[in-house]
C-alpha cells in the first residue's frame, strides 16, 4: 500500500474509533447516573440511612479541619430565599462544655464530647415579616447536614433541642453571651463515639399518601 493511502485509511479508522469511544463514554456516564428505584446503593444514601444519634463520647478533641468540614456541610444547606440566616457557635473550651452539660442535661454535653456546635438563627438576616419564621427550617436543614457530615467522618453527634423552649434558649444565651438577635436552635455535641447504637429503621409506608390524602 502506498504510504499516503495508508495514512488516509488510518485517519478514517481513527475518526470512527473516536466516535465509538465517545458513544461508549456517554452510555457509561448515563448508566452510572441512573439510580435504581429499589436497593439504591451509593455512599451518600448509605450514609444517611445509617446515621444514628450518638450520646456517649470518648472525650477526644475534634481536629480543626474536621470542625471546618462540619461547618461547610452545615452552610451548604438550602434556605428560604437563600437568606442563610444562621450562625454557628463552636464550643471547644472544656469549662463551657461542662457548663452546658450541667445547665442542660438533655444536651449530653456531660458525656465527654470533643466539642459542641450550637446552630443558631440570626434574626438580622431572616426574611422580614411573618415569613421570618422560616429561619427555623433553614437552621434545621443546616443541622441535619452537620449530623450527616459528622457521621460520614466517623464522628458521633446528636441534635439536642433548645428552641422553642425559650428557657433553654435563655440558658444558652447567658452561658455563651449571645446577643438578642441570635436564637440558638439546638446543641450538637460532637465527638469520637463511645457507643455504637444501631440505626433505627423508621420507614413506614403508612406515612405516604399518593396525590391526595
Ligand atoms: C428537634 C429535636 C430535638 C431533639 N432533642 C433531643 C434532646 O434534647 N436530647 C437527646 O438526647 N436527643 C434529642 N434528639 C434526638 C432524637 O431523640 C433522635 O433523633 C430520635 O430518637 C431518633 O433517633 P436517631 O437520631 O438515632 O435516628 C432530638 C432530635 C430532634 C430532631
What features would you describe in this structure?
The chain has 213 residues and is an alpha+beta fold. It has a domain at 54-191: NADH Oxidase (3-Layer(aba) Sandwich), CATH 3.40.109.10. The protein is built from 6 helices and 6 strands, in the order αααβαβαββαββ. It has helices at residues 3-33, 43-50, 64-75, 94-103, 134-152, 166-176; strands at residues 86-91, 115-122, 156-157, 160-161, 182-184, 186-191. Strands 1, 2, 3, 4, 5 and 6 form a 6-stranded antiparallel sheet that branches. α3 (64-75) crosses α5 and α4 runs antiparallel to α6. The longest helix is centred in the N-terminal third of the chain and has 31 residues, at 3-33. It is globular and about 75 Å long. Bound molecules: flavin mononucleotide (FMN). The site of flavin mononucleotide (FMN) has 10 residues, from β4.
Quick description:
With 213 residues, the protein is of the alpha+beta class. The protein contains six helices and six strands. Strands 1, 2, 3, 4, 5 and 6 form a six-stranded antiparallel sheet that branches.
What value does the Rg take, in angstroms? 25 Å
Q: Work out the helicity level.
A: 40-55%
Query: At the fourth CATH level, what is the homologous superfamily of the domain at 54-191?
Result: NADH Oxidase
Bound molecules: flavin mononucleotide
Q: What is the ordering of alpha helices and beta strands?
A: HHHEHEHEEHEE
Number of strands: 6
Q: For the record, give the distance between the C-alpha atoms at the N and C termini, rounded to a whole number.
A: 76 Å
CATH architectural category of the domain at 54-191: 3-Layer(aba) Sandwich
Strand content: 5-15%
Which structural class fits the helix and strand makeup? Answer: alpha+beta
Point out poorly predicted stretches. Answer: none
Bulk shape = globular
Q: Could you tell me the mean pLDDT? A: 90
Q: Kindly identify the CATH topology of the domain at 54-191.
A: NADH Oxidase
Name of the level-1 CATH class of the domain at 54-191: Alpha Beta
- Number of discrete helical segments: 6
Biggest sheet features: 6 strands, antiparallel
Amino acid at each position: 500500500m502506498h504510504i499516503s493511502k495508508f495514512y488516509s485509511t488510518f485517519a478514517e479508522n481513527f475518526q470512527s474509533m473516536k466516535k465509538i469511544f465517545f458513544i461508549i463514554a456517554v452510555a457509561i456516564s448515563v448508566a452510572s447516573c441512573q439510580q435504581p428505584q429499589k436497593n439504591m446503593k451509593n455512599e451518600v444514601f448509605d450514609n444517611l440511612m445509617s446515621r444514628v444519634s450518638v450520646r456517649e463520647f470518648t472525650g477526644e478533641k475534634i481536629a480543626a479541619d474536621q470542625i471546618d468540614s462540619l461547618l461547610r456541610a452545615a452552610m451548604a444547606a438550602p434556605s428560604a430565599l437563600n437568606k442563610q440566616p444562621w450562625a454557628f457557635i463552636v464550643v471547644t473550651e472544656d469549662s463551657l462544655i461542662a457548663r452546658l452539660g450541667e445547665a442542660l442535661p438533655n444536651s449530653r454535653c456531660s458525656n465527654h464530647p470533643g466539642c459542641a456546635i450550637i446552630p443558631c438563627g440570626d434574626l438580622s438576616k431572616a426574611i422580614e415579616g411573618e415569613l421570618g419564621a422560616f429561619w427555623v427550617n433553614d437552621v434545621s436543614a443546616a443541622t441535619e447536614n452537620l449530623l450527616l457530615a459528622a457521621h460520614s467522618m466517623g464522628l458521633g453527634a446528636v441534635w439536642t433541642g433548645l428552641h422553642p423552649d425559650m428557657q433553654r434558649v435563655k440558658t444558652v444565651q447567658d452561658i455563651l453571651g449571645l446577643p438578642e438577635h441570635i436564637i440558638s436552635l439546638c446543641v450538637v455535641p460532637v465527638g469520637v463515639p463511645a457507643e455504637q447504637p444501631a440505626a433505627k429503621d423508621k420507614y413506614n409506608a403508612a406515612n405516604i399518601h399518593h396525590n391526595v390524602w
